[in-house]
Design brief:
Layout: H1 7-21, H2 23-75, H3 80-88, H4 91-100, H5 108-111, H6 113-116
Length: 118
C-alpha cells in the first residue's frame, strides 16, 4: 500500500484502517451483517412455509375434487349443501368420506340425512 500515490486511495485506506481499529465500529458492522443475514433467512423460511401451505392446500383441494367426481359418477348431481361441506372439509374428513363412498348405496350413508337435503 505504500506505493499508492493517489490521495483518494490513501484517504480511503486510512479510513478503513481507522474503522478496523475501532472496536465499536466493528461491533456495529457485525450487528448490521447479522441483521441482514437474519432478514434473508427469515424471508427464505417464510417463503418455504408459504410454499408448503400452498402445497397442503392444493392437496386438500385435489382430494375434494376427486371425491366430488366419485360422488357425481356414483350418485349424480350433488346438493349445494354437500358441495359446501366438501369445500370446507379437512384432509382427514375427505379421506374418510373417500373410503366410505366405495361401500355405500346412498349419499346419506356417508354424510347423514341432513347433509344431503337441499
Amino acid at each position: 500500500m505504500q506505493s499508492i500515490e493517489s490521495p483518494a486511495v490513501k484517504k480511503a485506506h486510512a479510513r478503513l484502517q481507522a474503522l478496523s481499529d475501532d472496536d465499536e465500529a466493528r461491533r456495529l458492522a457485525f450487528v448490521r451483517e447479522r441483521a441482514l443475514h437474519d432478514e434473508v433467512t427469515e424471508k427464505a423460511e417464510a417463503e418455504a412455509r408459504g410454499r408448503l401451505a400452498g402445497k397442503a392446500e392444493g392437496k386438500i383441494e385435489g382430494r375434494a375434487d376427486t371425491l366430488r367426481r366419485q360422488l357425481q359418477l356414483k350418485f349424480g348431481a350433488l346438493p349445494d349443501a354437500l358441495e359446501q361441506r366438501l369445500q370446507s372439509a379437512d384432509e382427514a374428513k375427505l379421506a374418510t368420506w373417500s373410503e366410505q363412498v366405495l361401500f355405500v348405496e346412498r349419499l346419506e350413508q356417508v354424510f347423514g340425512e341432513d347433509a344431503v337435503k337441499g
